[in-house]
Design brief:
mainly alpha
């Protein structure tokens, strides 16, 4: 057979280049349209979530100069470093990254086409390229800041480079050229391992590839061993610097990340019967918390601290133990993962493509997805395997016309093996649309071969070819279209995205009503869902807290009643033993903030401690606990609160040590000033205090005022924090009986309109000044102003005992 008869053609012919260029332009154009529609319409365009948020934030840090980092990698680092380099070059603009990813998909289209052309000829090459160009999930993926956009072309290039090592070099230095090819393949495999851990697991097998090939072809073993060494050198050249970096920053020699054991457990635990991308009940699934959650649970079970390598080893051991104890259940999980990995349903991970398509009109065009490409690709694999059995005794294998010959059957067999090996890594770990995406680059050439086979079967009218095609399509369709997930699981995938949207809307200014509408629907449809009920309770809490802080007395009472009702709804969830740790944590955290708002200091402390038992590193929870401590000190005799004040100061020192460049730093300064003031007040008011203690108390109070001055003055600090600093400084000056400075602070803190908090402090300062001053015109004006303030305050809180006392004092100085 000639090359023309096989349909291979001349790869460099102008006509072929034009056809390929048009396919690549189509691949880029449709994705570019999708990206601009995503930017304009999708709620996550400016609010990346989960892994996207992690990669985006990490890349911005890298672009800002933090190239080395401070911790052992938990996520594969190549994508955020590539993204960071792009941000450093063009600025941290997500649209630039998304457009670049459109180009990467065009490259993947070309590589899949070249691979198919090598295996099955010219026509299959064009069809495979067109399949990738119009692949429906691939229309959406460039809009996501996810590593698969880089891994797909790299994996396709790896497969193509692996196949091309079959062609021995010629001429001078041929042996060195062959070694260079294997060095390149090894480097590609190493880079792939820095994008997906699946490749790391396959490195030993790929290192043996040249030796296995030599054994199969009965070639000398010595050159194959050299090629294996070249492959390992290429991989080591990529991975060793990463391992040394991990050793330097974390004291652990890890080739890529510390997440291998957790990834294995995540897809092979009895909580996850389908092996999907979901987290156990003690992990939140948010990259910034994920590594810590896995570590804390492992340390809790072993009752000792663990380094990242030990954490990974623990979860790997737990997976193997579970396999030994429950082999039948784990075989069922593996079977489900295999079926999902080959099924038409795009199993969500960070994104649910079906949900995302609601916001991207071009993604609603009926383009070929895995239902078609997977069916044709698996059918092509079946056709190839049937054809490879020619000459063996089988009722299904008879002779076919020469036009059905495969251009390079040995290369096709190797690509099929790479497909099966990579599929195996997915089945052994976690399956999702992201995990199986690289397989499409290997299936597309076989899909193209199926279509070429169908055309040739029709042209030749070969009954045997038609029978084989029908059988192959039946097998492919059976694997791809058989239902795996129940409808309830699929509905839950959509609800998960709605829940995330509600959380995002809750964070957006002025969109609480949208969040409430989504949360109420989720609660109505899933009445027993603790997560949905906690979310709705959080929305109600925010509304109630806003009401409880308003000047209007009626609204304030309504807000307090609503806070009590919300607390009654969420407290049972925090103590419900049937809920997993994560859901109890969410409920306990919300209880703590509600009780803090209600001034229930001791109960708030207990709930904060319950939440901190799950996430002891949360700065928000640690700060909340300090607020509860200080609140309890202010409501108790000074001597009793001294220990709590010392604990608050110790916790604040820990928080401030890591918050120097954090927006939270001024708020922590204010809290520290409050704690130092309370400490100093306790010393000054103690009946048994010595002169030395009183001196230290005065120093502590003055230190608090100096801290507040640093926050209250600079315009770069947010206005609400400057106001808060003024209020605290005013309270300290009231205690010191420095009435005029107190008045000045409260005047500076006063916002537009009614401000009961500032008015109350101002009234107390004015009364103090009036009580100590002689009669004068200024004193008369002060009485009039104090009387006005008192009337305004009584209109907002007519039943306040404090205002009654202030009224009596005012009567005495009239």
């Amino acid at each position: 057979m000639t090359a023309r008869q096989l349909g291979v053609g001349r790869p460099g012919s102008p006509r072929d280049r034009w056809i390929l260029a048009l396919i690549l332009a189509l691949a880029f154009a449709v994705r570019l349209v999708a990206v601009f529609q995503y930017e304009a319409r999708h709620p996550n365009a400016e609010h990346p979530a989960i892994d996207e948020a992690s990669y985006d934030g990490w890349a911005r840090e890298i672009a800002g100069g933090q190239w080395v980092g401070k911790e052992v990698y938990f996520q594969e680092p190549l994508y955020p470093y590539a993204l960071g380099a792009l941000y450093a070059l063009l600025g941290p603009h997500r649209i630039a990254a998304r457009v670049a990813q459109c180009a990467l998909w065009a490259v993947a289209t070309a590589l899949a086409g070249l691979l198919a052309r090598r295996l099955f000829g010219r026509a299959a090459g064009f069809l495979a390229a067109l399949a990738i160009a119009l692949y429906w999930p691939g229309i959406l993926f460039p809009a996501f800041l996810l590593k698969e956009n880089l891994f797909l072309p790299l994996f396709a290039l790896f497969a193509l480079a692996l196949v091309r090592t079959r062609d021995p070099a010629s001429g001078p230095g041929a042996a060195w050229k062959d070694r260079g090819r294997w060095l390149f393949v090894g480097a590609l495999a190493g880079l792939g391992a820095l994008l997906r851990g699946n490749m790391l697991a396959l490195l030993p097998l790929f290192a043996l590839w040249p030796i296995a090939r030599a054994w199969r072809l009965r070639r000398p073993a010595a050159p194959a061993v050299v090629h294996a060494g070249a492959f390992l050198s290429g991989s080591a050249g990529v991975l060793l610097p990463v391992a040394l970096r991990n050793l330097a920053v974390g004291g652990v020699f890890l080739l890529t990340t510390s997440g291998a054991g957790t990834n294995l457990y995540g897809g092979n635990n009895l909580e996850n019967p389908y092996g999907r991308a979901s987290e156990p009940g003690f992990v939140r699934g948010i990259p910034e918390h994920e590594a810590g959650d896995w570590r804390r649970e492992a340390e809790r079970r072993l009752a000792r601290p663990l380094d990242p390598g030990e954490v990974s080893a623990y979860w790997r051991g737990e997976t193997l133990r579970s396999f030994r104890d429950h082999p039948r259940e784990h075989l069922a999980i593996l079977w489900n993962k295999l079926r999902l990995s080959l099924g038409r349903y795009e199993v969500p991970d960070d994104h649910c493509l079906y949900w995302d398509s609601f916001f991207v009109p071009i993604a609603r065009v009926p383009l070929p997805g895995f239902g078609l490409i997977g069916t044709l690709g698996l059918a092509g694999l079946a056709l190839f395997l049937l054809h490879a059995r020619r000459g063996r005794r089988s009722p299904l294998v008879t002779s076919l016309p020469a036009s059905f010959e495969v251009a390079d059957p040995e290369a096709a067999a190797e690509v099929a093996l790479v497909f099966l090996l990579y599929l195996g890594t997915i089945v052994l770990t976690v399956t999702s649309d992201r995990a199986r995406l690289p397989l499409v680059a290997l299936l597309a050439p076989f899909a193209g071969w199926t279509l070429v086979w169908a055309a040739r079967a029709g042209a030749s009218r070969s009954q045997d070819a038609v029978v084989r095609l029908a059988l192959a399509l039946f097998l492919g369709a059976l694997a791809v279209h058989a239902r795996v997930l129940p409808e309830a699981e699929i509905a839950e995938d959509f609800d998960e995205r709605d829940y995330n949207l509600a959380v995002q809307r809750l964070r957006d200014e002025g969109r609480t009503d949208e969040a409430r509408a989504i949360a109420e629907r989720l609660v109505a449809e899933h009445a027993k869902s603790a997560r949905a009920r906690t979310l709705l309770a959080e929305i109600d809490f925010r509304d109630a807290a806003a009401l409880a802080r308003t000047p209007d007395a009626v609204a304030r009472r309504a807000g307090r009643a609503k806070l009590e009702a919300v607390l009654a709804r969420v407290e049972p969830l925090a103590d419900e033993p049937s809920l997993n740790t994560r859901e109890r944590f969410r409920a306990a955290s919300l209880c703590a903030w509600i009780q803090l708002e209600r001034g229930e200091w001791s109960r708030a402390q207990a709930r904060f401690l319950q939440a901190l038992a799950f996430d002891g590193e949360s700065r928000e929870l640690r700060e909340g606990f300090v607020r509860a401590l200080l609140g309890s000190v202010e409501s108790r005799p000074e001597e009793e609160g001294r220990a709590d004040t010392e604990e608050a100061l110790a916790r604040l020192r820990q928080l401030r040590s890591t918050a120097s460049d954090d927006p939270k730093a001024p708020a922590l300064e204010i809290l520290t000033a409050q704690a130092e003031f309370l400490k100093g007040r306790a010393m000054l008011d103690a009946l048994s205090a010595s002169d030395e203690e009183k001196k230290l108390g005065k120093q502590s109070v003055q230190t608090a005022l100096k801290r507040l001055q640093r926050v209250a003055g600079p315009q770069r600090i947010p206005a609400d924090l400057r106001r808060r600093a003024r209020l605290v400084a005013g309270a300290i000056q009231l205690y010191l009986r420095n009435w005029k400075p107190a008045e000045n602070h409260y005047h500076a803190a006063h916002g537009p309109g009614t401000d009961p908090e500032a008015d109350l402090g101002l009234l107390q300062a004015m009364l103090g000044s009036l009580e100590e001053s002689a009669k004068s015109d200024d004193r008369s004006r002060g009485v009039v102003e104090a009387d006005r303030l008192l009337r305004d305050l009584r209109s907002t809180d007519p039943e306040s005992p404090l205002l009654e006392d202030l009224g009596r004092r005012l009567d005495r100085v009239r």
